[in-house]
Amino acid sequence: MKRLRIMARHDSVIAMALLFVAGTSWLILNGGALVWACVPIGIGLQLLNEYNIHRHLFHLKPPRNQMFFNLLYRAHYGHHDFPTCEKLLFVPIWFALPMAGVNFALVYGVASLLGLPAAPVAVAVVLVGGVGMFLAYEWFHMTAHMNARKTAAERRVTQLHAQHHFRDFSKWFHVSPGGEIIDKALGTAIDRDSLRQQSRIEFITTLGLRPDDPRLLKARARFAQMAGLSAQDLQRAAQMPATAHKTN
Q1: Which of 70, 61, 45, 26 is nearest to 137 (CA)?
Q2: How far apart are CA 224 and CA 64, in angstroms?
Q3: How far apart are CA 215 and CA 64, in angstroms?
Q4: How confident is the model at residue 199 (pLDDT cuts 50, 70, 90)?
């Protein structure tokens, strides 16, 4: 119940849950067997979507422009900077809803070209399969950052996601159960033994940026109130680790 209450505090989760309920209700009233069979396609496509967005968009090279840096910080960099901050944990609504709209339009267009019932297929693939899998992602991602009793699947996700955060942020981009196969197929999986032999990644929680990088300082200040970060939190985040090698 605690985790459900946490999710219910975030507008992006609420909005996506409403889309899922609307899509599922529509399918129950109007969808045939062929349309319902499209739901698993949406689940698979969302797993790919999750991986590609995380790897290729959320882990973009840090922009020089502060406005773009701030957007990326709010979308994902800030979560690495403050991994346990609830307000930076969930995908923001200004990203989640447009992505759902883009996905719906793409699936609608492809279904039309293939001569399939475009609207029902798009509802099944995007609003039910895709959005349902997105909500599962948010659940497992939240759980990975919580000290709570976990199922076997949740423990596995937590183990691999911790490696992404604290051992090598260029590996293990999946979070949802089943996404592990995508990391393995695309070469971004790494086992524990390999991680032990790998050189330490400097400034790992800031994705390679110096903790006192001016862009980080400005972004932290920009979102401090929204995220509930204190002046002490910001000060600690900007401190160089004692073992860090300073570079120009």
Answers
A1: 45
A2: 21
A3: 8
A4: low
pLDDT for 6 equals 94
Whether 104 is in a domain gets the answer yes
**Residue 215 C-beta-side C-alpha neighbours within 13 Å:** 22
Please report which helix (H) or strand (E) contains residue 240, including its range. none
Whether residue 196 is contained in a domain is answered as: no
CA distance 143 to 177: 12
Number of domains in the chain: 1
Residue 248 is predicted with a pLDDT of 29
For residue 56, the one-letter residue type is H
Indicate whether 202 belongs to any domain: no
Crossing angle for the helix pair 11-30 and 93-113, to the nearest 10 degrees? 30
Residue predicted with more confidence, 103 or 34: 103
Is the pTM higher than 0.90?
yes
Provide the domain limits for residue 93: 2-191
Q: Do the domain assignments include residue 78?
A: yes
Structure tokens at 185: 């197929």
